[in-house]
User: What shape does this take?
Amino acid sequence: MAKALVGIIMGSESDMAVMCEAAKVLDDFDVAYEMRIVSAHRTPDVMAGYAASAVKRGLKIIIAGAGGSAHLPGMTASHTTLPVLAVPVKKDGHDHEALWSNIKMPPGIPLATMPENGAGNAALMAIEILGLNDASLTKKYVEFRRKQHDNVTHVNAELTKRGWKKYLKGQKK
Ligand code: RP5
Assistant: This one.
């Protein structure tokens, strides 16, 4: 098994439905990762140890997701010099407190905050960063971006040919 380059951590098992989207993207790009529950509130010692040992263990980036008061991403960033990508987890009944908590980091400790529940984009950002030192990964990523471009081009061609009403009707089938 390849050594993990990305650490995906989350405050609770209840965040996993959101955070597994990051794992799916990394799987698609064959990027090795590890996934752990690391609560800033319930296991603060584990959180500090995880972040402090991350460089030595070979991690290059940490994706940290949490909901509620969401201290995990920021506190993780404060215990490591690795780039930490925050995913504010928003569940039913939540307001935007996790997002606010994550984007309000004080000067001096940067935290790259993704959109609410944006674990997939966090993984893509991780791939962009890892790609700086991995040409074959960047090649796959460029191909991924090209497919998105081609998809829009294809939709536009269909729209022009059939008009939006027929296009939408075709989509609903
Ligand atoms: C945060 O508070 C966790 O990230 C989670 O989103 C929330 C509480 O989780 P559970 O009570 O569902 O374990 O620390």
Q: What stands out?
A: The radius of gyration is 19 Å.
